[in-house]
Specification:
The complex is a heterodimer of chains A (about 110) and B (about 120).
Chain A: E1 9-13, E2 18-23, E3 31-38, E4 45-50, E5 55-56, E6 61-64, E7 70-75, E8 84-92, E9 107-112
Parallel strand pairs in A: 1-9
Antiparallel strand pairs in A: 2-7, 3-4, 3-8, 5-6, 6-7, 8-9
Chain B: E1 4-7, E2 10-13, E3 19-25, E4 31-38, E5 42-51, E6 54-57, E7 65-70, E8 73-78, E9 87-96, E10 102-106, E11 110-114
Parallel strand pairs in B: 2-11
Antiparallel strand pairs in B: 1-3, 3-8, 4-5, 4-9, 5-6, 7-8, 9-10, 9-11
Classes of the chains: A mainly beta (about 110), B mainly beta (about 120).
Chain lengths: ~110, ~120
């Protein structure tokens, strides 16, 4: 699976959009980009995933560059409850996929009042 | 959360004693996983299961064994606990959906302290 690089930490003002970047320059054509987050002391929570098109759900939007070497997770109106560690993971789909995910260090997002 | 329960949630034990953590699901998912989380290391995969009696090693499997005798239960055993196994252990279920997506649901965690 391709390696990802994320900033260690970021701050965001409450009510503003939080834009979390992720670099995955070695991503291959059949690898998807996943985002999970972990609020303090809780288990990680799935947010969103995508292949090459931009994706949006009730939690966030995922913007993947045309060359797929980087992506951005957008929380449109961050709240204090969005303070968490955000993990960007790339994973291949297809036969033999055991579903296991390998987590990196992630980005600690601090939403401030 | 989504039909996944870990027990015990907290345990303190002594070095050399056996410990078993249980993960129970009511979702009938094929895949189950055990992770540990330590400061400075993030989440690391210990073992996973892709069916009853089908298990495989993850990144940090030394000192751990697992068993899955039925779909709903995945047990993690430390045969002889050591202080280095003090950690928070997370179970996850899910894995590969119809689209092939890796959507895991995690339990609340089990905090183990080995003295």
């Amino acid at each position: 699976d391709a390696k990802t690089t994320q900033p260690t930490s970021m701050d965001c003002a409450e009510g503003r959009a939080a834009n979390l970047p992720c670099n995955h320059s070695t991503i291959s054509g059949n690898e998807y980009v996943y985002w999970y987050r972990q609020i303090h002391s809780q288990g990680p929570q799935y947010i969103i995933h995508g292949l090459k098109n931009n994706e949006t759900n009730e939690m966030a939007s995922l913007i993947i560059t045309e060359d797929r070497k980087s992506s951005t997770l957008i929380l449109p109106h961050a709240t204090l409850r969005d303070t968490a560690v955000y993990y960007c993971i790339v994973r291949v789909h297809g036969s033999g996929n055991t579903g296991k995910l390998i987590f990196g260090q992630g980005t600690t997002l601090q939403v401030k009042p | 959360d989504a039909g996944i329960t870990q027990s015990p949630r907290h345990k303190v034990t002594e070095t050399g004693t056996p410990v078993t953590l249980r993960c129970h699901q009511t979702e009938n998912h094929r895949y189950m996983y055990w992770y540990r989380q330590d400061p400075g290391h993030g989440l690391r995969l210990i073992h996973y299961s892709y069916g009853v009696k089908d298990t495989d090693k993850g990144e940090v499997s030394d000192g751990y064994s697992v068993s899955r005798s039925k779909t709903e239960d995945f047990l993690l055993t430390l045969e002889s606990a050591t202080s280095s196994q003090t950690s928070v252990y997370f179970c996850a279920i899910g894995g590969v959906g119809a689209s092939g997506a890796n959507v895991l649901t995690f339990g609340a965690g089990s905090r183990l302290t080995v003295l």
